[in-house]
């Protein structure tokens, strides 16, 4: 039996890339969305459409979903992985960095959900997997605004889950701790980057992206009548 389409945002590297390869290996056609198309195409995955999309552009995102569904059929799941983390304190961080995190991590996720939700409700089937964070469960310096955006992801996801439960649509939040990705690399302060990794210097404190991808696939592969509402996962050695 042909497997249904899976949409993945932020699919060009890190967790998104690992998820793409994992779902591709499981036989799903894929719609991969990110700003770096060449990196996604380099995966060489079969039955895959790679499109340049900025999740903050609602119209661009909706058009991409339509193109993917026209090619592969209705999306059975969207994995909202696109995100950014710019470390900084409220007193010192440039407000433009706040805006960027809110636009990508919150508004971008809302845009992605809106692009698939009406059709999922009409079909009475679908899965929305939102990438939260341990930082969406507690806050600490210098992650103040980033934590706020991830708290928003967790709160929105729970509210959405209750809204669509009667429509047989699942909403799942995956909340990783530290993962070996380039997420923190865009922070403008090298001192903050160094401090971030110093806090995670215990053995087995940083997960590999593949470990998160395995968990995402596990949650998705449960029966549609079973909704694993949230999974919090971190390296055993991570204290925070």
From TrEMBL:
Protein name stated in the entry: Oxidoreductase
Entry keywords, A to Z: Oxidoreductase
Domain of life: Bacteria
Record-linked InterPro entries: NAD(P)-bd_dom_sf, Sc_DH/Rdtase_CS, SDR_fam
Family: Belongs to the short-chain dehydrogenases/reductases (SDR) family.
Pfam families: adh_short
PROSITE patterns: ADH_SHORT
Organism listed in the record: Pseudovibrio japonicus
């Amino acid at each position: 039996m042909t497997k249904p389409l899976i949409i993945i945002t932020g699919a060009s590297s890190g967790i998104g890339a690992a998820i793409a390869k994992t779902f591709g290996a499981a036989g799903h056609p894929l719609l991969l969305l990110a700003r770096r198309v060449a990196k996604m195409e380099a995966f060489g995955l079969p039955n895959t459409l790679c499109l340049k999309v900025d999740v903050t552009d609602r119209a661009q995102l909706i058009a991409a979903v339509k193109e993917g569904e026209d090619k592969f059929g209705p999306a059975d799941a969207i994995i909202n992985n696109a995100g950014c983390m710019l470390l900084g304190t409220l007193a010192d961080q440039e407000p433009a960095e706040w805006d960027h995190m809110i636009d990508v991590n919150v508004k971008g996720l809302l845009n992605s959900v809106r692009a698939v939700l009406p059709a999922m409700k009409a079909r009475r089937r679908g899965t929305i997997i939102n990438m939260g964070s341990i930082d969406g469960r507690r806050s600490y310096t210098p992650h103040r605004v980033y934590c706020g955006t991830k708290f928003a992801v967790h709160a929105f996801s729970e509210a959405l889950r209750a809204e669509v439960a009667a429509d047989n649509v699942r909403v799942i939040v995956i909340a990783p701790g530290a993962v070996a990705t380039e997420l923190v690399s865009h922070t403008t302060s090298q001192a903050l980057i160094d401090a971030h990794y110093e806090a995670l210097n215990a053995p087995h404190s940083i997960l590999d992206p593949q470990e998160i991808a395995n968990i995402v696939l596990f949650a998705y592969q449960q029966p549609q009548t079973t909704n694993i509402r949230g999974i919090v996962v971190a390296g055993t050695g991570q204290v925070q």
